[in-house]
Amino acid sequence: MPMQLYCVLAARTGANVAAGDPHCAGTDALLLAAGKWTSQLHDEIYVFDDGYWTKNRELWTVVQDSSWDEVILDPGMKTQLIEDVQGFFDSQAMYKELAVPWKRGIIFHGVPGNGKTISIKALMSSLYARPDAIPSLYVKSFEACKGPQYSIRSIFSQARQSAPCLLIFEDLDSLVTDETRSYLLNEVDGLESNDGILMIGSTNHLDRLDPAISKRPSRFDRKYHFKLPGGQERAAYAAFWKKKLAKNHKIEFPMELCSIIGELTEGFSFAYLKELFVMALLTVARGGPVPEEEVVEPVGPVERAAGVMDAEPAAGNEKVDMNGGGNEATEAEKVEAPVKKRTMPEVEIPEELRENVLLKVIKHQIRTLLDEMDNTKEDDWPSEREKPVRGVRPCRMDTLSFM
Questions:
Q1: Helices 57-64 and 116-128 sit at what angle, rounded to 10 degrees?
Q2: Is 200 helix (H, G, I), strand (E, B) or coil?
Q3: N or C, fewer C-beta in 10 Å, the chain?
């Protein structure tokens, strides 16, 4: 891209001409005022991408519309997270008194689509709402024509100028490579002061992070695990949608449905729950036909391939090759058994709710999403208390790439 030059022209006064002064006081004042204005943020957030910082107003708007009221998490974890971040920015004097560097790092990790990003947005919003507003700096990549080391240096230089601030690294495991690791650690641990900088890194794969980052104290000190929601969290998420629809009198959404939906959606991530409600509510709002209750046929035994004989087990439960080839299993026997089809849990529905239109549509959409989960080849994402769920994410909730 060719270099662009801009000129500011102003009429020269007689005094300027007589004194031989090439400057114009009015023009100089204008340039100084414009430079000062552009060096400040005006309802914007700094975003680092492609090797430079830009001011982003759309991200600012999204963050301002975010609130902890919209975040469904385990209550204890949610409280601890808020206190951890707010307490850091409230404790500058205590850190100084104890002669402890006033810096901290936090990692958000866990199953995709379970609230990492919405929690980051809520944190950003709550920090901007403080009397001493704390700015956020958001890092999307280290890629730059001058190389990732230049990017890392620019990132921490801006963070030190903006401190106290929140410095956010999205998908930390993909940002930190063998090429960038040592340089990043030098900026985190180096001689320059990082006082007032709270770093938050998000990752879906904690195991892919170098131990020098994930396990070394004084870098990223605290880790928060965002797991698949349990039954109470899923019911609370349903209640969140009920509250959003409080003024909509066209959709019958009794409170009793929340706990029932929580039971029916066992194994759903928050991303899948969001997709479920969006699909169901649009269906009801359009006034489409109400799906009939599906009858699930019992699955019979899987038939073996034609022409394959079942041998009687020999002593010691050894497999016998019918062609005399020893105890090696045949190729047909090595074929993996099909994965059991995922089904919706059986839940007792009170008689007064059995004809509820929203519930019927939700149950239909649950089956649709369960089929989608079964047809994916993504890795299993186990819940702490429930069966593993395998599936791609229907809607992206853990990235700020909406800018």
A1: 90
A2: strand
A3: N
Please determine, for residue 139, whether its predicted confidence score (pLDDT) is greater than 70: yes
CA 350 from centre of chain: 36
Q: How remote is the C-alpha of 146 from its chain's centroid?
A: 29
To the nearest whole number, what is the mean pLDDT of the chain?
81
Bridge partners of residue 109, in order along the sequence: 203, 225
Record the tokens describing residue 222, joined without a space: 């605290």
- Residue 252 gets the label, from left (phi > 0), alpha (psi -120 to 50) or beta, of beta
- Nearest-Å Rg of the Cα atoms of the chain is 29
Closest by CA to 227, choosing from 206, 245, 213, 241, is: 206
Q: Are strands 165-169 and 197-203 parallel, antiparallel or unpaired?
A: parallel
Q: Enter the pTM of the model.
A: 0.75
Domains of the chain: 1-40 (no CATH), 45-226 (3.40.50.300), 231-292+341-390 (no CATH)
Give the three-class secondary structure for 12. Answer: coil
CA distance 313 to 198: 63
Residue 303 has pLDDT above 70, yes or no: no
